[in-house]
Amino acid sequence: MDELLLIEAVERYLKDEMSAQEKTFFEEIRKNNPAVDQMVVEHTFLFNELEKQSNVKAYKHSLYEVESKLAEEGLISKSQLKGKAKVVFLWRKYKKNIAVAASIAVLVSLVTTGLIITYNNKVGNTAVTDLIGKIKNTEIEVGKIKDSLKANKIIRETPKPDFRATGFLIDGKGYLVTNAHVVNRMKTIYVENNKGEYFTAVSIYTDPEADLAVLKITDTAFKTMINLPYSIKKTNAELGEQIFTLGYPRNEIVYGQGYVSAKSGNEGDSTAYQLSVSVNPGNSGGPVLNKNGEIIGIITSKNSVADGVVFAAKSKNIFKLLDAVKKDSDTLNIKLPANTTLKGLEREQQVKKMEEFVFMVVGN
How big is the CA angle at 89 (ends 83 and 92), to the nearest 5 degrees? Predict the structure, then answer.
C-alpha cells in the first residue's frame, strides 16, 4: 500500500469515515500486519494529544470570556486583566510544553510511517522468533547450588547451562510458568532467583499451542514463598493499556515498559497480544503486568525485523493450563494468587516487590 494512501486510510478509519466494507477490509489488514496495527495505535496517540491541545485552547478562550464578563460587571478591575489573571498566566507559561508534546507525537507518527514502508518491503508476517537466549561459556560464572545438605559439606556439581529464559511463580510452593519452547530446549532445568541462588526444577506440563509450561522447583533448598504480590487477570487487557515486564535477557533482571498495541497476536492469534515493548533473547517466559500489578500476559516471541513488535500469551491461558494439569494429576494443588498488593504503588516500589518472584530459567 502506498505511503500516503496508508496514512489517509488510517485517518479515515480513526475518524469512522469508512464504509462497513472498507472498515472490514482495513481491520483484516491490521490484524495480519503488525506494523500497520502499530501505526494505528501511534496515530490514535497523536489524535488524542491534538484533541487535548484543542481542548486547552478552547478552555483558554472561555477564561478570557469569563474575565471580560467579570470586568464588565465590576467584579474585577481592568488593571487586574492587564496584570494577567493567574490562570491565564499559567497557561502562557506552560503552553510551550504542550506544543512540544504534540510535536513529539507528530514525529513518532512520521517515524512509524517510514518504518512501515521498510517493513513491507523486507518481510512478510511470518518473521517471528522466540526469545530464548544462548549462554556463552565465558558469559557467566554460575554459583553452586545451595541445599539442605550444605551443612554436611555435600555440595552438588555446578550447573553449566546453554540456554537462558525467564519464569515467574504462580504458587509460592515452587510452581512457575514459562514458555513451552523454553523447556523443550532443556533436558536439565535450573532456576535462579535475584539473589543468585540456583535450584533444580522439572517441567510438569506443557501446552505447545499456547506456548506455556509449568515448572516445579524440586530442590530441597527452596523455601515456600508466601504472599505473591501480583494477581493473574482472567479478562483481556485494553488496547493502548500501559504495561511493564521483567526478565533475564542478561545475567540480571531487566525492566521494560510499553503498551498493548493489538488484542491479538501474530497472524490474528486470539490467544495472544501484540505489545510495543523492548525485549531481547532471554525474555521468553517473562511476566507482563498492567499498572495495577495484574499479570496480563507472558512474553513468547517478537517480530525479527519490526522493532518493538512483541507477542505475549494472554494470562487467561494460565487458567486453562492448570485445568489441564489437574486432569492429568489429582495430587497437584496449585493455588494461583488472587489479589494484588501492587495497586497504587509507584513503579519503583512495584518492581522492588516483584523481583524475588521472577526467576532466570537456565538449562542444557
Answer: 130
Separation of CA 158 from chain center: 34
pLDDT number for residue 33: 74
Contact at 8 Å (CB) between 34 and 309?
A: yes
**Span of 97-106, 190-199, 240-249 with lowest mean pLDDT:** 97-106
List strand residue ranges (DSSP E) for 8-152, in order. 128-130, 133-134
In single-letter form, the type of residue at position 360 comes to M
- 110's enclosing H/E stretch is helix 86-122
**CA 80/CA 57 separation, integer angstroms:** 22
Report, as an integer, the average pLDDT of 199-216. Answer: 92
The H or E element containing residue 284 is none
Measuring CA to CA, which residue among 343, 359, 341 is closest to residue 227? 341
pLDDT digits (tens, 9 = 90+) for 49-105: 666 666 666 666 666 676 666 666 665 555 555 544 444 544 454 555 555 555 555
d(CA 341, CA 348): 14
| Contact between residue 301 and residue 272 where contact means Cβ atoms under 8 Å apart | no
Find, among 106, 67, 111, the residue nearest to 85 by Cα.
67
Q: Measured between alpha carbons, how far is 364 from 347 in angstroms, rounded to an integer?
A: 35
Tell me the CATH number of domain 231-318+325-356, given options 2.40.10.10, 3.30.43.10, 1.10.8.60, 1.25.40.10: 2.40.10.10
Query: Which residue carries 512478510 as its cell?
Result: 124
pTM over 0.70: no
